[in-house]
Specification:
- The complex is a heterodimer of chains A (249) and B (125).
- Chain A has 249 residues and is mainly beta.
- Chain A has one domain.
- In chain A, the strands form three sheets. In chain A, strands 5-4-8-9-17-16-13-14 form an eight-stranded mixed sheet, with no helix packed on it.
- In chain A, a hairpin with an 8-residue loop joins strand 16 and strand 17.
- Chain A is globular and about 60 Å long.
- Chain B has one helix and ten strands.
- Chain B is globular and about 35 Å long.
- In chain B, strand 3 and strand 4 form a beta hairpin.
- About 13% of the residues of chain B have low confidence.
- By secondary structure, chain B is mostly beta strands.
- Chain B has one domain: Immunoglobulin-like.
- Classes of the chains: A mainly beta (249), B mainly beta (125).
- At the A-B interface, strand 7 of A face strand 5, strand 6, strand 9 and strand 10 of B.
Chain lengths: 249, 125
């Protein structure tokens, strides 16, 4: 084999290896909770894109609500026209959801396809995606605990301030423990392309609260595969939603 | 012509400076405490015989008979749910209920016709 060809092949293999090891984000969309006609709705999208949640509802694995003591309350999803509303048996302090979003693979810079490594053995990126959402719906009685099923979860590491612009420290948990390397943006709805801030060794980032209204913080953490024969990584996309009240009218 | 335009502009700006739209009634009407969910006002009133809840939607009294209401009282980490009874007009009542200081009180109402379910949360001072 000519030397130049060998070099080219080695370079290509190195690139493939690097792509396999580097945490590659496959999908920036997420789920979050927002108010629709005074009720709690589960939304899928990014930025101003409030996408088809009803057709994705069968993918939702878990919907939960918690009271002021963070004890579970029974909660179910209800389709109301194009919107998915959350009905809980009592007024919740927290609501939470988990939506696995399949296995996606691609070769190089090609488009992602919904295929496993078995179906696309030459994939340079192969990832399983899971979306998580937590929303604060009432005053907090204490620190939010790690919630069941929220493999990646954003929790405020202090009281929610009353006014926008106030710095707030967020802790990103992975399997209930602070995790370094999670990539966080401050406003998934109004500033979805913002530069991501990475959690430090203590798993925290501090950001100014951006909106005197709905705030949806997003964290993406790429963790190891639990089924390496099918995908090389798991991309966890978690949101935390809370609202700052506007002035009385 | 210029004077007319200036006058129109001034009138227009004056209109903008004072917003006409608001959420209607937002102040307690029965001496209780108030929480808003959008334009809906929930007023919670502790009385010797129990607890009343009044609802006003913008300026309209909500017909209690068309709704169900539940209070979820969390104190010392334990929650108890109490179904309220619809009385006249926009009043619900939970007979004999006491709200301890510091309790977190979730109010949840359900529209019997539409199934809409929403509420608000109070912290009792």
């Amino acid at each position: 084999m000519p030397r130049t060809t060998r070099f080219a092949r080695l370079a290509a293999l190195s690139l493939v290896g690097a792509c396999g090891l580097t945490a590659v984000s496959a999908e920036a969309h997420g789920i979050w909770f927002a108010q629709r006609a005074k009720q709690i709705a589960l939304v899928y999208g990014i930025g101003a894109d409030d996408l088809e949640m009803v057709k994705r509802l069968p993918q939702v694995e878990k919907i939960e609500a918690y009271d002021a003591g963070y004890h579970p309350i029974k909660a179910t999803a209800r389709v109301a026209g194009p919107v998915v509303l959350i009905d809980s048996e009592a007024q919740p302090t927290l609501v939470a959801a988990v939506m696995p979003y399949g296995i996606w693979s691609r070769v190089g810079n090609e488009e992602f396809e919904k295929k496993t490594l078995k179906e696309m053995p030459n994939a340079t990126v192969s990832t399983r995606n899971v979306k998580y959402a937590v929303a604060i719906e009432g005053p907090l009685s204490g620190p939010i605990p790690a919630l069941p099923g929220q493999v990646v979860q954003i929790v405020p590491a202090g009281p929610i301030p009353a006014e926008l612009g106030t710095p707030l420290k967020y802790l990103v948990l992975y399997n209930g423990k602070p995790v370094a390397g999670a990539k966080v943006i401050n406003d998934m709805i109004n500033d979805p392309d913002a530069a991501e801030v990475t959690t430090g060794a203590d798993g925290t980032v501090t950001l100014p609260v951006r909106n005197q209204g709905l705030n949806v913080i997003r964290a993406v953490y790429v963790g190891p595969s639990d089924q390496p024969e099918l995908y090389r990584q798991v991309e966890h996309t978690a949101t935390l939603a809370f609202t700052l009240a506007h002035k009385p009218e | 012509m210029n004077k007319t335009l200036t006058a129109l502009l001034c009138l227009s700006l004056a209109g903008m400076a004072a917003p006409a739209w608001s959420h209607g009634i937002t102040k307690p009407q029965h001496g209780g405490v108030v929480q808003m969910n959008g334009e809906t006002m929930f007023e919670l009133v502790s009385q010797p015989t129990g607890v009343s809840l009044y609802m006003i939607d913008e300026d309209d009294l909500v017909n209690a008979a068309a709704m169900t209401a539940k209070l979820s009282v969390t104190a010392h980490g334990k929650r108890s749910d109490v179904a309220m009874v619809a009385l006249k007009g926009n009043q619900f009542f939970a007979k004999g209920l006491k709200l301890p200081k510091g309790a977190n009180v979730g109010v949840q109402v359900t529209d019997k016709a539409s199934g809409s379910r929403y509420g608000a949360t109070f912290v009792i001072k």
